[in-house]
Amino acid sequence: MYQKTDITPTPALIDKIEQQIGRAPRGIQAISATDSLGTPLVVRMHSIVDKKPFPTLYWMTSELLKKEISHIEARGEIKALEERLIEDPEFLAQYHASHQDYIDQRWHYMSPEEQVFAEQAGFVKLLKEKGVGGIANWDTVRCLHTQYAHHLCGYNVVGQWMDETFAIADLIP
Asked: PANTHER family this protein is in (predicted)?
C-alpha cells in the first residue's frame, strides 16, 4: 500500500534515497509517495536544478518498483501502449490529460523565484510543453517508470492501466 506524501527529506531519508538510487541525490524537493513502512517510493524534484530545467518532476526511487516495471518494459508493453494510443481516441485523450496534469503540478510546485528564473532564462515554454518525464511528443510513451511515478502522485492513465493489468500497487508493502 502506498501513501501520497509531501515530506521534506531529512538526512536519514536522503541516506535511504542514496541507497536506493546508488548515488547522492540532487534537486529533491520532497518525498511524494511512500510505502506503508515509510520507505520512499517517489521523490518530487525541483524543476530548476543547477540553473537548468529538470523536466522530470517525479522520480521513482523504489528498487522493487523499478525492477518490476523494467520487466514490464522488457516484454514490449511500451510498443503495445503506443499502438493503443493510435487506436483508442479516449485513451489518447486521457493520456494527454495525464501530461497536462504533470505540467500543471510541475508549475504549481515551483517557487515564485523558480518561476521568475524560468521566465528570465527562457525555460517557460519547455516547462509548460514537456509532459511526463520531459516527453515532447504526447502521442508516445518513453518510460513506464516515470508514468508510474506520476500515477502514485497525480493523474496518470498509463499508471492506472499498469495497476489494472499487472497489479503493481499490490506489490508495495
From this structure: CONSERVED PROTEIN, DUF501 DOMAIN-CONTAINING PROTEIN
Question: Sign of dihedral through CA atoms 137, 96, 40, 143?
Answer: negative
Residue among 72, 66, 68 nearest 41 (CA): 66
Q: Quote the pLDDT of residue 55.
A: 83
Question: Domain range spanning residue 145?
Answer: 2-171
For residues 63-85, one letter each, b for 16 or more C-beta atoms within 10 angstroms of the residue's C-beta and e for the rest, the string is: eebeebbeebeeeebbeebeeeb
Query: C-alpha grid cell for residue 81?
Result: 501502449
Amino acid at 28: I
This prediction's pTM:
0.96
- What is d(CA 7, CA 30) in angstroms, rounded to the nearest whole number? 5
Model confidence over 83-130: pLDDT tens digits? 999 999 999 999 999 999 999 999 999 999 999 999 999 999 999 999
